[in-house]
């Protein structure tokens, strides 16, 4: 057990260093954003605490499930978490054009990096079940953060939170119905709808998009996301039925 712990520490040495550098970067970015956007004093500690908590969860999961090194692809995903933390802290901000554009720019950068981590994993043969799960959970967190801001800034009703909660409802349902925990095959449809969902929420946050239009955009994206989850659920149910037959 002791040797296994030491091996985990050696594997994650680079990850811990990367998390430390990302923490410094997110703190500097939060301080700069606070001054530039005239945000409340709570913004900086909220951002830093949120990122550190998320990084600790990711590193703990990596220590348990990752067999190789953390790798550059997972480092990119971790940095995406730092960007999303900067956006999540805006829950204490008021809706101004500057704040909304800041949220769009930072969250949009995180969305662009979503393609970088996957590309690195494939190019350098760093793909792993942990990396795929880490990327997926980061997508889920990003969606929940953006949906929360769309609601917080009065761009849509509280129902928009369903966009970010569907993933967690699916996981919770898996605790009751074991067949929902079975692995799903790779799907371009799933990946595309995830990008569309996040992109739609970014459009909703744009200052020039009125609430009447942002509500329609968010509703359409939610319908697409719900349909994607329904397709996956039906596939898992049929696959489980065939396995029992």
Report on this model:
This protein is mainly alpha-helical and 245 residues long. The chain has a single domain, classed as Four Helix Bundle (Hemerythrin (Met), subunit A), CATH 1.20.120. 79% of the residues lie in helices and 0% in strands. It has nine helices and no strands. It has helices spanning 2-11, 13-37, 43-65, 71-88, 97-123, 129-152, 162-176, 188-205, 211-244. α2 packs antiparallel against α3, α6 packs across α7 (162-176) and α6 (129-152) packs parallel to α8 (188-205). The longest helix is centred in the C-terminal third of the chain and has 34 residues, at 211-244. It is globular and about 60 Å long. The N and C termini lie far apart (41 Å). The mean pLDDT is 89.
Architecture blueprint of SSEs:
Elements: H1 2-11, H2 13-37, H3 43-65, H4 71-88, H5 97-123, H6 129-152, H7 162-176, H8 188-205, H9 211-244
Helix pairs in contact: 2-3, 2-4, 3-4, 4-5, 4-6, 5-6, 5-8, 6-7, 6-8, 7-9, 8-9
């Amino acid at each position: 057990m002791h040797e296994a712990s030491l091996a985990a520490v050696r594997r994650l040495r680079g990850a811990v260093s990367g998390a430390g550098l990302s923490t410094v970067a997110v703190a500097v970015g939060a301080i700069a954003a606070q001054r530039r956007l005239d945000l409340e004093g709570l913004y900086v500690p909220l951002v830093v605490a949120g990122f550190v908590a998320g990084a600790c969860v990711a590193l703990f999961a990596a220590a348990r499930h990752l067999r190789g090194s953390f790798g550059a692809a997972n480092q990119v995903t971790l940095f995406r978490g730092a960007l999303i933390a900067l956006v999540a802290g805006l829950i204490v901000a008021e809706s101004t054009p500057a704040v909304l554009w800041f949220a769009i720019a930072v969250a949009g950068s995180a969305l662009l990096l979503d393609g970088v981590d996957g590309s690195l994993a494939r190019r350098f043969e760093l793909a792993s079940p942990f990396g795929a799960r880490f990327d997926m959970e980061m997508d889920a967190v990003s969606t929940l953060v953006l949906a929360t801001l769309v609601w917080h800034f009065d761009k849509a009703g509280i129902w928009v939170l369903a966009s970010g909660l569907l993933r967690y409802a699916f996981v919770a349902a898996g605790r009751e119905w074991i067949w929902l925990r079975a692995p799903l095959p790779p799907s371009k449809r799933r990946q595309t709808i995830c990008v569309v969902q996040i992109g739609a929420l970014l459009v909703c946050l744009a200052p020039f998009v009125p609430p009447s239009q942002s509500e329609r955009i968010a509703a359409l994206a939610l319908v697409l996301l719900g349909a994607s989850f329904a397709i996956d659920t039906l596939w898992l149910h049929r696959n489980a039925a065939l396995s029992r037959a």
